[in-house]
């Protein structure tokens, strides 16, 4: 068993059932996601999804970490980040059989996304039927203009970088 907690600092903490901190996760995606507001996993606890106050959905693969959390090689991997809503995500869930993620926001919309790619299928209440088999058409909701970002590796954006200023005024010269 594992407990997950989402925090205002965009951090997710994974806890043992005894209350010991096992892992802290910070998003590596290009755009800061803001405070986290919703969490869910698939039924096999291989995928962890988080929704944020800024409308982002972040997907982590936690399968190898849960197999052996003591092995340092078994890391939690952030795989995907996408903007699902223009406002705060209040709930989300994964439907494994159809491979979709359902998201809800304070803007009143409930939307459907492809679980592996973050492609938008539509919203509940639309006139057309959902076409779940076609993920080749890259469409977006009207209030979102960022396509899903596939996370290739662990970014180091959390580290402070030393910046050199080559174009500084030197009065002596």
TrEMBL record:
Tagged with keyword Isomerase: no
UniProt keyword annotation of Repeat present: yes
WD repeat intervals: 82-113
Stored SUPFAM superfamilies: WD40 repeat-like
UniProt keyword list: Repeat, WD repeat
Residues of the IP5PC-F beta-propeller domain: 27-114
Pfam families: Beta-prop_IP5PC_F
UniProt name for this protein: WDR64 protein
Species this protein is from: Mohoua ochrocephala
Upper classification of the organism: Eukaryota, Metazoa, Chordata, Craniata, Vertebrata
Gene that this sequence comes from: Wdr64_1
